[in-house]
Structure formats: C-alpha cells, structure tokens
Design brief:
The protein is 35% helix and 33% strand. It is of the alpha+beta class.
C-alpha cells in the first residue's frame, strides 16, 4: 500500500519517496511509490499534477490493493525520487472541497437538504441536493456558509474506527469499513472524507453560488470558491462592462436595456417581413422578364442579396402563380437559403431539385414537388446558379 502523505498534511508539496514498481497505464508509463503527496481522482475531486524527478505527472489513479499509480510523461526507474505538487492546482481543489463541506452542511442545517453527490470540475463545482429549493432558501444558505468562512474556523483531520464514528454527529453515514478519516469544521460539520482540505475556513476565501437548476427531483447547485470565485467575478465584470458599452446604459439598467433592444429587433423583423411581402410582387414582376425557357417551362434563376428565406418564398410564390413558370431562388452571401416553386402546369419536381442541390453543396431542407426550401448551401452564387440550370 502507498502511504498517503496528504491524509495528514494537505499542505505538503515536496517529498522524498521510493519508486517500488514501474508499469504501463494504457500507452503511458506509470510508477507506484512507497509514499506520496499526490492525490488520486476520488470522491468527486480530481487528481493532483506536478513532477517526479524530471518527469511530469499527468494523472494519478487510485489503483488496486491501496496503491496509487502515478502516470508520467517519460520513463522512470526504480529507486529514490523527489516529488513536487503543483500547488496552485492543489490549493484550488482544497478551497473547492472544503467549501463544499461548508456549503453542504449549511444546506443540511438550514434547509434540511441533503447532498447526494459532489463534483469538482475544471472551472466550477456542483452539489446535487435531494429536494427543490427556492431562491430565498439558497441565498440564506449562501450567507450562512460565508459567515462560517469568515469566522476563520479551524478545519481538523482525525481518524476514528466504526464504533467511535457511530457516536459522532456525522453529516452523512459512511459506507466505508474500518478506520475512517474525518474532516471537522469546528462547531459546524463532521464528514468522512479522503480529500485535501484547507486548515482554516478563512482560506476558502468566499463561497459564491453561480447557478441552480432543478435536477432529478432535487436541486443542482453550481458554486465557486476562493480563486475561482475571483476568476468568476472578473469574467462577469468584463462581460457586464462590455455589454454596458454596447447598450449605452448603466450596469443596473442592463436587463431593461437588453429587453428594449429585443423588442426593437422583433418590431424591425416584423416590419422587414411586411415590406418584403409588399416588395415581392414588384421583384417577381422584374425577375419574370428574365425567365429562361427550359423545355415547356419558363424558369427564373436568381441569387438575391438582402432577402431572407421568407422573402424568397414570397417572391417564388408570386412567380409560381404565373402559368408555366418555375423559380429557383438563392440568398447571398453563403451559407445560402434556397426556395424552389412551380406553377401547377410546370413540369418541375421541386423536391428532387432541392435534394440534388443539398447533396452537392451541403445544408438541409425538404418539401413537395410544387414547393421546396432549404438552407446552409456553401458555394458562390454563380456556382449555385450554374448547377441548378444544369439540373433543369
């Protein structure tokens, strides 16, 4: 078994060890040490990274029989080796994991909401609670969790056998047998946990709930602690500052400003649609004068700039109202929309034409023999028109 130095001291970043086994982990080389400060992926917390000798540790795995496998980027030989942990990554994980203990305990104490699972991701962390919570409840819990953080309470590690642990007010019963490693936040939480933790709650910095969502009948809470909370604040600050400049409002007025822009955009789209419908009659009359004779059908082939698919359909429908006429209209620039329409007496299968256009230029669409439309065609206008002319 590998001696796990982080069990006693999460702040250990340098250590001496002996490589006792060398093996393969997939295509990579891996080593087992007699003792290590590297934390393996376990209990919702990702592994540590760092160096062993002149090799980079790129993954740490909890292997069989209590040994820890260190996956490295180059071959190492049996013998003594110096190990060093990436402290910035370790501290970030310590802040998130201890923050999770405090936040989960606060949900349990104030809202009787049990934590079912925990995941520490690369950008944020989540806990899944067993019941749905209101925004007011979540805010109250967030306030309580940060009160505990700012109290700078000691976070201690101790070990207990099953009998002793049964007498303690554990937040959640442990499924593990034998000796348990317990993490205690003074006068607030005791939990069985093998992860790395800060020594005092003040080192968490702060706990910020980033988002919540209903999940499997309960609530999924996304949160940020410490350096991640600072990083998240900076990202939010930059987004708000950029949006304020674009919308020309004060930060507090941003939601109303965006709502106003959405309303204006919706009104403009409606007006554009109405104008295109009116203009389509005149555009269709102009295009009909350039119709090409293909067998018994007068075909209008055109690539039109400034028209969306609805506008193209209005024009094509006008042209299809003329006996013996058909229309193949594209929007430009690409990716192009296309509308194909024909009069009842015109011998053109619109759906078949569209199918071949999509097969040649990509995109998607569908329709009937008398009307078909699609979008996403990637090609210059002259190439689209030439290919469609060849089909007809």
């Amino acid at each position: 078994m590998t001696e796990r130095l982080y069990y006693q001291n999460s702040y250990a970043t340098e250590f001496e060890a002996e490589i006792i086994r060398v093996e393969k982990h997939g295509a990579r080389s891996a080593v087992v040490l007699d003792r290590t400060a590297f934390y393996p992926t376990s209990g919702g917390q990702p592994f540590d990274t760092g160096r062993l000798g002149d090799a980079n540790v790129i993954e740490v795995v909890d292997a069989d029989a209590g040994s820890i496998l260190h996956v490295v980027d180059r071959e190492l030989a049996k013998g003594p080796v110096h190990g060093s942990i990436d402290w910035s990554r370790r501290l970030e994980h310590m802040q998130q994991h201890t923050g999770q203990h405090v936040l989960s305990a606060a949900f349990d104490r104030l809202s009787n909401a049990r934590t079912e699972s925990f995941h520490l991701g690369s950008a944020s962390s989540t806990i899944d609670l067993n019941r749905a919570l209101s925004a007011a409840e979540i805010e109250q819990v967030e306030n309580e969790a940060n009160r505990v953080v700012w109290d700078d309470r000691p976070v201690t590690i101790r070990f207990a056998d099953a009998a002793e642990a049964a007498q303690l007010p554990l937040r959640k019963d442990s499924a593990r047998e034998g000796t348990l490693r317990l993490i205690e936040v003074a006068d607030f939480d005791i939990s069985a946990c093998g992860g790395t933790h800060v020594a005092r709650t003040g080192a968490i910095g702060m706990i910020a709930v980033a988002s919540t969502e209903r999940f499997r009948g309960g609530t999924r809470v996304e949160f940020l602690c410490g350096v991640r909370a600072l990083r998240g604040y900076r990202a939010l600050r930059d987004v708000v500052s950029g949006s304020v400049r674009l919308v020309s409002v004060l930060p507090a007025e941003l939601p109303a400003g965006i709502e106003r822009l959405q309303a204006e955009s919706k009104a403009a789209k409606k007006q554009l649609k109405e104008l295109q419908v009116r203009l389509s009659t005149f555009e269709a009359a102009s295009l009909a004068q350039r119709a090409e004779a293909h067998a018994t059908v007068q075909v209008v082939l055109a690539a039109l700039e400034g028209w969306d698919q609805a506008g193209l359909k209005a024009i094509a429908s006008e042209l299809a109202g003329r006996p013996g006429h058909a229309a193949v209209l594209f929007s430009v620039p690409p990716p192009s929309a296309v509308v194909i329409a024909r009069a009842p007496d015109a011998a053109v299968d619109c759906a078949a034409v569209l199918k071949q256009l999509v097969e040649r230029f990509g995109g998607k669409g569908g329709g009937r023999p008398d009307l078909a439309q699609g979008g996403g065609l990637e090609a210059p206008a002259d190439e689209l028109l030439s290919f469609a002319r060849g089909l007809l």
